[in-house]
Write a structure and sequence with these properties.
Elements: H1 14-28, H2 34-40, E1 44-53, E2 59-70, E3 76-83, H3 88-104, E4 110-117, H4 125-138, E5 148-152, H5 158-172, H6 193-212, E6 220-224, H7 228-239, E7 243-249, E8 252-255, H8 262-271, E9 283-285, H9 287-291, E10 297-300, E11 319-321, H10 330-338, E12 342-344, H11 346-349, H12 352-366, H13 372-397, H14 401-420
Parallel strand pairs: 3-4, 3-5, 6-7, 6-10, 10-11, 11-12
Antiparallel strand pairs: 1-2, 2-4, 7-8, 8-9
Helix pairs in contact: 1-3, 1-14, 3-14, 4-5, 6-7, 6-12, 6-13, 12-13, 13-14
Bound molecules: 1,4-dihydronicotinamide adenine dinucleotide and 2-oxoglutaric acid.
1,4-dihydronicotinamide adenine dinucleotide binds near residues 230, 250 and 325.
Length: about 425
């Protein structure tokens, strides 16, 4: 039997959430109205059918998406997501967020995102490899080291990036490692890329704590999502003295008021098929309960629209640092702002990942490897500078940091259009 998984019904729409913030920021800037459509409409939307032979001999057809939102600042950049909830509006929102994110941290990339609706937790390694190779084959005209450079996102990691690089390189008859970032180190991956997004979250959190006069050594945190972003964010926050009292994944949330041993949780997850299910030394609570714990810092690092108008009123954290893309729906913004919670928005807080991806691409292009120390120092500086710039705009215009971040991004992209012209 061949079939394509239907897209699930969703109450919140990340594309609408993105556009609502975009509209507010755009109105605050003195930019010509025609720029609105230029910035809003993605440059390219590609949808492909991907037949894949499953281990039992049956053939399943998956739908693969790649949206290139903008290439005005440089080649488009953005991860590939494997998740049962992938749909076109989500990928369009994620692609636009990549454009804004790269502009906020001032790196020379446009924005893109890809996704395949599938459940990698229910697929074998061989099935995932065949799916990734089929997707790459179908996207040969889209990807390219000077055109569109993918990377990992939810449900994908260094293995998938290695298969992408191999498939692309075979098609072009030479090794092209700069076509993708987030690769294994032996294939030209960069030191520090795995931890980079979580590290940027930590730098953002510490910077925001300084503004709020919160002492990290007396602070508590809850981290939703214990994948690439959440686990490294939790571990690095712990290193800086923050007591992480709750972590979570798809199996539920795990709470210990004395603090979770993050290293132990990471080791447990590795031995337990990537899941926290059964993790001892903690009480199991729900992912919703985690969001409303009495902590100083909340780090949503799983997926979109987990903070909504339904639960925002119950949030007790003083500070939210968004590790995930779009974890707060636009409907929750007003409630959160009225409560006086400082939010470091996704397009700033999680930009450490694409920043070190940029470093990986630079290293691939020059054929030279940087040390971890150099990478961490440079990415920390970029993250801190971007934080300070966005914070300063938020003070100047008396707007939340989210709107300030959109303002910084939109202005940069619109200014670039003005010089390049051609429309
Ligand atoms: N990997 C990266 O470098 C970057 C990722 N992001 C964003 O960060 C978020 C997480 O991405 P990764 O850590 O890469 O993904 P991942 O696949 O490594 O981890 C995702 C984690 O979230 C958990 N999760 C999934 N659905 C959940 C739910 N409904 N409730 C609670 N937990 C749930 C999973 O069990 C897993 O622990 C996504 O929004 C992604 O777009 C943003 C910037 C860069
Ligand atoms: O590392 C990259 O190029 C992109 C990572 C990503 O998908 C994101 O920042 O949301």
């Amino acid at each position: 039997m061949t079939y394509i998984e239907p897209a699930p019904l969703q109450k919140e729409n990340p594309l609408e959430s993105m556009m609502q913030r975009f509209d507010v920021a755009f109105k605050l800037l003195n930019i010509s109205p025609e720029m609105y459509d230029i910035l809003m409409v993605p440059r390219k939307q590609v949808v492909v059918g991907l037949p894949v032979t499953m281990d039992d001999g049956s053939v399943r057809v998956f739908e693969g998406i790649r949206v290139v939102h903008s290439t005005i600042l440089g080649p488009s950049k953005g991860g590939i997501r494997f998740d049962p909830d992938v749909n076109m509006d989500e990928v369009k929102a994620l692609a636009a967020w990549m454009t804004w994110k790269c502009a906020v941290v001032d790196i020379p990339y446009g924005g893109a995102k890809g996704g395949i609706r599938c459940n990698p937790r229910e697929m074998s390694k061989g099935e995932i490899e065949r799916l990734m190779r089929a997707y790459t084959g179908a996207m040969l005209d889209v990807f390219g080291p000077d055109r569109d450079i993918p990377a990992p996102d939810m449900g994908t990691g260094e293995n998938e990036m290695a298969w992408l690089m191999d498939e692309y390189s075979k098609a072009y008859g030479m090794t092209v490692n700069a076509v993708v970032t987030g690769k294994p180190l032996v294939l030209g991956g960069s030191l520090g890329r795995k931890e980079a997004t979580g590290r940027g979250v930590m730098v953002s959190a510490i910077s925001a704590m300084e503004k709020l006069r919160i002492n990290p050594y007396r602070a508590t945190a809850a981290v939703q999502g214990f994948g690439n972003v959440g686990s490294h964010a939790a571990s690095l926050l712990h290193e800086r003295g923050v007591k992480v009292v709750a972590i979570s994944d798809v199996t539920g949330a795990y709470y210990n008021e004395k603090g979770i041993d993050i290293q132990k949780a990471m080791e447990y997850r590795e031995k337990n098929k990537g899941l926290l299910e059964g993790f001892a030394d903690a009480t199991k609570i729900s992912n919703d309960e985690l969001l409303t714990l009495p902590v100083d810092l909340l780090v949503p690092a799983a997926k979109e629209d987990v903070i909504t108008e339904d639960n925002a009123a119950g949030i007790q954290a003083k500070l939210i640092v968004e590790g995930a893309n779009g974890p707060t729906s636009a409907s929750a913004d007003e409630i959160i702002n009225e409560k006086g919670i400082l939010v470091v928005p996704d397009i700033l807080a999680n930009a450490g990942g694409v920043t070190v991806s940029y470093f990986e691409w630079v290293q691939n292009r020059i054929g030279y490897k940087w040390t971890l120390d150099r990478i961490n120092r440079r990415s920390d500086r970029i993250m801190k500078d971007a934080f300070d710039r966005v914070y300063q705009i938020s003070q100047e215009y008396k707007v939340p940091m989210r709107i300030a971040a959109y303002m910084v991004a939109i202005k940069k992209v619109a200014d670039t259009y003005k010089f390049r012209g051609g429309y």
